[in-house]
Amino acid sequence: MSDDLRELLAKAKGVAATARISWADFQRASRRGEGGGSLGAPDQPGDPDAATAAAPDLWGLDALRGRLVELSARGAAATLTSAIELVGEAQRSGEPVGWVTLGHATFYPPDVADSGIDLAALAVIRVHDIVSAARAAERLLRSGGFGLVVLDFAGTTVDLPIAHQGRLVTLAQSHDAAIVCITEKPGDAPSLGSLVSLRAEALRSFSPGSPGGSPGGSPGGAPSASGASDRGYHVTLRALKDKRRGPGWSRTSRLRGPSGL
Fold this sequence. Notes:
By secondary structure, this protein is α/β, with parallel strands linked by helices. The chain contains six helices and eight strands.
């Protein structure tokens, strides 16, 4: 293992040791009304459109613990949005999160921060290839300090060796953690492998009245009651593979887009 990767992993362990404290402070601030969220937050609290179409135990951090999960889509993909929702859920529960990404791409930090994610408490590790990413994830899980580890493979052809898949599953089960892989592929393409417990396709569609949405919307966006542009859109998760509950279920949420949209 390279010295750079050792240094990154050492920093990640430090994040795991302090994340719970920083998120206790964040939760206290949230109760005082400070903070917000857009990328992974419902458009309006209590809005019927924000309700999910599936039982809550089908998706979410608790439902994914001990499992190797694949989030995939092509086209109007919402895989990153769905992964960030899980990061927010983990952080609100005081669970440190590791995000392993290949060097050529990652999320856009301002949008993620606008979703209520504490970037200082998110351990981000950049590696050069698939095998290094799997090894980094294994070390994060083996530390026992992370409740969620995301492997961001978007934009890359992924061939994750079965041996690494097996170790990831074993470590996730041993430490009650979730391991989520983001991939870019159509729904009829095969999953990462036989050890994937759940594969969900995450797609985005604009809600009526939003920029680029259905009739009633316009390219410039329809103003809301407050005068701001309505950036609402729907994210639909559809289970293509689910070893526990069976495929076919779906979950739809209405979210508001980040300020840059």
